[in-house]
Specification:
single chain, 167 residues
Length: 167
């Protein structure tokens, strides 16, 4: 159990933590003057909406990590992937809810900090992940899980969730 926890913490520290904490921290420092010029009501509303987005994204992220551990018997890291295909919970509606979670957190930060730089980082993150999933992740899943993943991929959209979960 301790080894699994260490594996998850390491993968989280090296991947989402960098994307959601370290890069935005560096970017937001450059936006401080812009926020000072905004009306107080706009700043306050950005804080509330941004915080709600961030919390929702974080909750989804935790759910996905727990599913990877319990169902998939692996981590979110490409070097320590799941051993079983995860098609439960949010994965019934969309193939990449963990990326959705990280994007939601980044959107929350962009709103909270009124940061166009974090908004730009969010767009770059989406582009990088889209390319990664097309070129590496999905072919790797086909190689690891074969027909099981092919059926799942045919039924569940990559980015935009389906209303009714896949059985």
């Amino acid at each position: 159990m301790t080894t699994m926890l260490i594996r998850h913490l390491l993968s989280i520290a090296l991947l989402p933590f960098v994307v959601v904490v370290l890069v935005p921290r560096a970017l937001v420092a450059r936006d401080a003057l812009t926020v000072a010029a905004l009306p107080a009501a706009l700043v306050a509303s950005g804080h509330v909406v941004g915080a709600l987005f961030f919390v929702a994204g974080f909750a989804l992220f935790v759910w996905c990590v727990l599913l990877f551990a319990r169902v998939g018997r692996g981590t979110l890291a490409p070097w320590d992937p799941t051993r079983r295909l995860v098609v439960a919970g949010p994965y019934r509606h969309v193939r990449n809810p963990m990326i959705t979670a990280v994007c939601t957190m980044l959107a929350g930060e962009a709103l909270f900090f009124h940061s166009p730089r974090i908004g730009g980082w969010l767009l770059l993150f989406v582009a990088i992940n889209h390319s990664y999933f097309l070129l590496l992740e999905e072919p790797g899943l086909v190689a690891r899980f074969g027909d099981e993943y092919e059926r799942y991929r045919a039924a569940v959209p990559r980015w935009l969730p389906r209303r009714v979960g896949w059985p």
